[in-house]
Amino acid sequence: MGQPRKPKLQTAAPAPEDADAFRAAVQDAVPIVSNKVVPTRPRPKPVAQQRQQDDRAALSDSLSDSIADRWESGEELVYLRDGLARDVLRKLRRGHWVTQDALDLHGMTVDEARSQLTAFLSTCLKRGLRCVRIVHGKGLRSKNREPVLKKKVAGWLAQREEVLALCQARTADGGSGAVVVLLKSGSKLQD
Questions:
Q1: pLDDT higher for 42 or 12?
Q2: Which helix (H) or strand (E) holds 164?
Q3: pLDDT at 191
Q4: β-strands 163-168, 178-183: how paired?
Q5: Does 94 have pLDDT greater than 50?
Q6: C-alpha 153: how far from its chain's center?
Q7: Which of 22, 89, 97, 191 could form a disulfide with 131 if both were Cys (CB 3.0 to 4.6 A apart)?
Q8: CA distances (Å), origin 68, targets 58, 77, 86, 151, 172
Q9: Spatial separation of the C-alpha atoms in residues 122 and 164, rounded to whole Å
Q10: Are 168 and 154 in contact (CB under 8 A)?
């Protein structure tokens, strides 16, 4: 057994006299809307959500301290970008390149130091400097008498594309309280 059928609706044609009466009644009527256009809102542009996530991740990585975790506070800071000869690091330690400028981060908070370091490196690149010294301090006046900025500065520098190598400064230039940094030359930088 099937389902009961629905009755079909039947429409009757209006009587001719009814149609004439209707036309007479509306002959002076003016249409309210003619050629009506329904406004449509423009569709929003698509959002590249994955790119936004990637940009946020890159920013987070550039501000992170994860690379700094591999340096112990008592160890000498040394970094050499992959692909460079160990000879570059040896020359940097021996003062082969003249230190062209310096930044002193003594007494700054971590956020202040990061901001100052970023601005300093940008200025150095614009000026075409190759070798700079960054004084982070030995931590003699900090809590537990340990350097707070030492590992952080090394980590921040190791994450920067323009940093080729860094090592602890010579004793006369600050020793364990400073690092000497070798930067890419201006001709090797890509905008």
A1: 42
A2: strand 163-168
A3: 39
A4: antiparallel
A5: yes
A6: 19
A7: 97
A8: 17, 10, 21, 5, 25
A9: 15
A10: no
**Residue 76 token pair:** 């000498």
Spell 84-108 as b/e; 16+ CB within 10 A means b: eeeebbeebbeeebebeeebebeeb
Instruction: Compute CA distances 152 → 29, 32, 96, 124, whole Å.
Output: 83, 74, 26, 20
Which of the listed ranges 71-85, 97-111, 173-187 does the model predict with the highest average pLDDT?
Answer: 97-111
Residue 120 has which token pair? 């300093």
pLDDT of residue 42: 82
Residue 77 · residue 71 · CB < 8 Å: yes
- Rounded (to 5) percent helix, strand, coil in the chain: 40, 15, 45
Nearest to 72 by CA among 146, 136, 142, 143: 146
- What pTM was estimated for this model as a whole? 0.57
Hey, which of 47-51, 63-67, 138-142, 160-164 has the most confident mean pLDDT? Answer: 160-164
